[in-house]
Amino acid sequence: MADATELAPPTVRRSWWTRLPVVSQLRQSIGLQRGMLIAGLVLAAIFVLAAVFAPLLAPYGYSQLRDAAGTFGAQQPPSAEHLLGTTVGGYDVLSRVIWGSRTALLVIVVAVTASILVGVLLGLISGYFGGWLDRVLVMIADAIYAFPSLLLAIVLAIVISGGQSSMWGGIFAAALSITVIFIPQYLRVTRSEVIRIKSEAFVESARVIGAGHVRIMSRHVLRNSTRTLPLILTLNASEAILTLAGLGFLGFGIEPTAAAEWGYDLNKSLSDVTAGIWWTSIFPGLAIVLVVLGLTLVGESLNDLADPRLRKRAAGPEPVEDLGVELPAGQQEGEQR
After folding, report:
1. How many other C-beta atoms can be found within 10 angstroms of the C-beta atom of residue 140?
2. What pTM, to 2 d.p., does this model score?
3. Angle CA(319)–CA(325)–CA(328) in degrees, nearest 5?
4. pLDDT tens column, 219-244
5. Which residues are 165's β-sheet partners?
6. Distance (Å, rounded) from C-alpha 118 to C-alpha 180?
7. What is the CATH number for 167?
8. Is residue 329 in a domain?
9. What is the count of structural domains for the chain?
10. Please, which residues have CB within 8 angstroms of residue 321's CB and are 6 or more apart in sequence?
11. In this structure, are strands 66-67 and 70-71 parallel, antiparallel, or unpaired?
12. Where is the ABC transmembrane type-1 domain (predicted)?
């Protein structure tokens, strides 16, 4: 009699890198959904790499007006010395676009990090304790939605630095306004998950053995209530870039001598468009569009893959792998029918 363990299917162990968040979703996606996710990841990766390695990639500084050969000159067309031309202020367009990615990335990091820390903490407290505190926090979160993020950014820019922002002044003005708008989103998502999880059996067991509220919230509830936050993060990152660009376009952004910012460059190139000078506006605008498009594609794709109904509908039934085990003759005939 054959050993029962010989007929057991072999255990397939996945590599550690296949279990990473983005890699796991990429393996689950197929067809158009996979194409959208790959396109978004490529655009997002180019944006992050340009921001991190801006000093190596940019041919000039973001506020540089001259080199050893002399001044650059204003509104110079694309050439071998300046691949994307120069702006009305005499800055190199390519360098401003590359350095602008670093400013955008800093705003995303500051705004999203602060939003997650505050929103998750308030959502955890609101959902776990409930009562009057829950009602007050939810009411405040609903009221915040009435404030336009761009208008709040303008007000904060004026309060912080009088509308003429330094690098970090402009970054914090945009980041603080975005943080205030994003906090209710993280609060509501975390609160709904906490309300569901706090009634689970393992939470009740922790209460029975005498665990305190802080230990239950930090060790049991928080860990299981933040799984959907990466999906919201990618969508909020694109909105953060749009708010920063809008702030600079309206003239409340960062000064060109402090840092490069795409919205400011678009504002200064408005008069160039009517004069047939296209390179000063098209490249900063294209950078905004591509980065927002990439982050949005990643967020929407991850959101679809997180929904089991959409994932199964897109992928269809999973194929059965051949494990090398022969079936009885009668069962083989039934499978063929």
Report:
1. 13
2. 0.78
3. 105
4. 777 777 777 777 788 878 888 888 88
5. 254
6. 9
7. 1.10.3720.10
8. no
9. 1
10. none
11. antiparallel
12. 101-299
